[in-house]
User: Fold this.
Amino acid sequence: MLWVTVPPMITLGLHAFTHDSAAALVVDGRLRAFAQEERLSRIKGDGRFPVQAIDFCLRDAEIDPQAVDRVVLSFRPWIGAATRLAYQLRRPRHGLSAAFDLMAKGRGNLGLVQQLRKLGIQASISRADHHEAHARAVFLASPFDSAAVLVVDGVAEAWSGASFVARRRPSPVFECRGRIPFPASLGLVYAAVTEHLGFRHNREEGKIMAMAASGTDDLVVEFGRACRLERGRLIVDHRLFDFGGQWTTKAFEKSFGPRRRPSEGLQPRHFALARALQTVTEGIAVELSRDLIRESGEENLCLTGGLALNPALNGAVVEGSGATDVYLLPVGGDAGTAIGGALAFETDPNWRLADAYWGSFPTSEEIDHALVAAGLEPSVVGAGVVPKTAELLAGGAIGGWFQGRSEMGPRALGHRSILADPTREDSRIRLNKLIKRRETFQPFAPCVLLDACEELFPGMGPSEFMLRTWPVAEESRPRIPAVIHDDGTARVQTVVEGDGSGLAELLQAFACHTGLPVLLNTSLNRRGEPLAERPDDAVTVFQETDLDFLVMEDVLIERTKGTSNAQYQRSNVEVRAGSRRANSQQPPGLGSPAPTKQRFEERTET
Ligand SMILES: [Fe+2]
Assistant:
C-alpha cells in the first residue's frame, strides 16, 4: 500500500495598520501561536506591521516562513472606504487630515507583500470580514457547539458591529443576522466621550468605566437621547458627535459641559458624564444581546469587539441578556481578529481555546541573566518562595509575580501580575500613587480561588479571564476594600490549580495569614506601557517603581535583601534541579522545557 503524507495547511492571520497589531498561526485549523506586537515592541497599542509578532509565532510553532500557505488580514480596507472617506471629508476642520490618515493606512496595506517577502513569506494574501473575524475568534475559542454572537465595535469596513448565529458542526457556519452601519457606533461614542473627558481613546476607556461607578445619574436621561435604540436600530445624534477628528461638537458641550483638558482636575460633572455614557451603552448592549438571544433561539451568547473589553458592560450583559451562558474572549479587541481571520479558511471544529497563556516562555537562563545583569540578588529560591511571598503580602508588601508564558489580552491573569493584600485600603492608594502613578480613583481587581468565590461573589461562577464585574456580597465588602468599585462591584478573576501561574498555591498560603484566599491582581507594567513580556521588562518595572519584591518563576527578590551574584548563581543551579518547577506537571510555564508542537496539542482540547 502506498502512504501519502499530506503536508499541514499553515495560515498566518494578521491584524495591522490601525491599532493593536497581532499575528496568529493556525495549522490544520487549530491555533498554534499568537502574539500581540505591543508586547514585543514595548509600544502600547502598536498598530504597525507586526514584524516581531510574526517572527515570534513562526519560532514558537517551529514553522519555516516559506511553509506558510496563506496570509489572512482581518480587514478589507476597500469595503466601506467610500462611506468612511465621505464622512471624514464632511468634517470641516479635521476632515482632510483624517482623510490623509486613511490614505496612509491604505499605503501600509499596499506594501504588505513586500513586507512579508522580507520575512521570507511567499504565501498568497486573503482578506477576511473584520466583524466575522471577531465572531470566529470568540465562538471557536468558546466551549459552545452553537451560540448567538454579538460584536460591538468602533468602526471597521462599513459597520460598527454585527450579530451572528454560529454552529460548530459538521463544519463551522456563521450566519449573519444583522449589522450596525457606520457612522452609528457604540464604540465610537465611547471613544468620543473618553476624549471629551481628557483621556485617550483606545487606551484609557477603563478610566471612564471606573469614573462611572462614582458618578451621579444626572445626565443619564439626556445622554439616552443622544445615543439610543429605536426598534433594534442604533441611533446616534450626529449633531453632538464628530468621529472625523473633533470627537464632540459645540452642541455636545452645550448639553454635557465643556471639554476637559488632561491637566484639569476631575469635577463631579465629569463623573456624571462617565456614568451616563456607561449606563446608556450598557443598556443598549443588553438590549441588543437580549433581542439576539430571543430571535435566534440560542441559549448561549458570545460577546466580543472593542466594547467587550468593558467589564461592567460585560457584567450587565451576563446578567441581562437572558442567555444561559456567556463567553468572553481574553483578547476580544482587534488583536483577536488575527485569530479569527486565520480561522476563516480552515477550521478544525474540535479546536477550543484551553487557556490564555500563549506569550513568551522565558527559560531559567534568561531569567537568571536578567537578574544578574541588573545586579539583583535573590532572598529565596525554590520551594520557600510561595510561603515567603504570602507572608510578605500579608504584611502589606506589594510585588511582581512573573510565571511561565504571558497571558494574551489586556488583563494580567497571574503570569505577569502585580499582587497586593486586598484587605488593606492603603494597598490601592499606594499602588495608584507610587507604582502605577495614576489617578487615585482607579480601582483594582481581585483574584480569588474558585472554591471560595461563592461566599464573596454569590452566583457569579467561574470568571477566569477577569472580563466582567460582579456584585460583592454586602457583608464581605468591608473585608476587601482595595478591590471594590464605588458601586459595590468587582472585576473578578477566579483561579484554579494547574493554570501555570502558581496563583492557587499562593492564594492558599495567603489565606493561612488572612483567612481570605483573595489577592489584588493588576498588570505588571509601568504607566503607559504594555504588560511586561520578558524577564528584562519585569526587572525594569521592579527597578523603576516602588515594588517591594519581584518573584520570577521560583526566585524571590526583595528590595532590601540578598546574597551576592556568585552565591545566587550557584544556589540557583542547585535548587532548580529539584525545585517544585522541575517536578511540576503543570502546563507550559513554571520552568518547563521549551515548547514543542506536541505540547501545543496537549494545550488544546478536543
Ligand atoms: Fe474590531
